[in-house]
Amino acid sequence: MESWKETKELQPLVGQMLKNSITKQRISHAYLFQGDRGTGKRELSILFAKSIFCQHRTGAEPCLDCRDCHRIDTGNHPDLHWIEPDGQSIKKEQILHLQKEFTYTGLESNRKVYIIVDADRMTVNASNRLLKFLEEPSQQTTAMLLTENGQSILDTIRSRCQVLAFQPLSLHRIEKKLQDEGVSESNARLLASLTNNLNEALAMNHDEWFANVRKIVIQLIEVLQNKPNEGLLFVNTQWMPHFKEREQIQRGLDVLMLWYQDLVNHYLDREEAMVFIKEREKREQAAMRWSRQSSAQCLSFILEAKRKINQNVHPTLVMEQLTLQLQR
């Protein structure tokens, strides 16, 4: 996201509000950017920071070529501070360090900006320390808090921020952008259904590991359909060796869920909603094995498996139980 013009396509309302705050010189001391992953929160925060610091901007548009713009791109601007989780959380010490940095005069100007990524992962002590920081805002200080879970932010912090809700990106828009980048129609449909982050989708498209995910999911379906007694064997010899990490298992379950969603859509005659567009014949065969009701029940089983993976239940036990449920 290099310009405010681009925001009209991706986040028109949020983009216009931030652009207006620049042109009208009414920059708030704190913003809360809330929205799903891939909706452009980080990119827009960088663009906003460039507009704040750029000395050669035209209206709200930063020049993108000056020293300030380049240093923001490389993460080296002395008056722009990033805070990201240290391990699983953002700790009180990180906020204390930020406060200390802000006691000094800006190196380039009197303005300072800080961006807190995954702000919902602040510890209680970190949140309370940030609250005290926000209660005494400087005219030259701007905060941007980025989160996928705005409801986890303390109400007292939310009340001191201008809350900007980032809307989910259109699946068809992501799909088209992927095809424009050379991704096949079938892969673009699958990737757009898994993430609305274009860069993540492109990375997955070139990932050899992910290329085999679709194949393994289809193979599991065929085993469950034609040789159900071999389901557990397939899980232990094919599925688990490929999906070694919990995050990878979640990705596999996401794809498996999309398959059963296609089955439900098959019964509802929603051809336009299909994700596995190349597997129509396989889907019709699967419809002879799973009814609409049982397909919907399978979706519930997969959601429960995903919850257990998040709760650190042993992955093999989770997948074995899920396999038994799906083959009923």
TrEMBL record:
Keywords: Nucleotidyltransferase, Transferase. It holds the Pfam family DNA_pol3_delta2. Gene3D superfamilies: P-loop containing nucleotide triphosphate hydrolases (3.40.50.300). Its EC number is 2.7.7.7. GO terms for molecular function: DNA-directed DNA polymerase activity. This is DNA polymerase III subunit delta. It comes from Halobacillus salinarum.
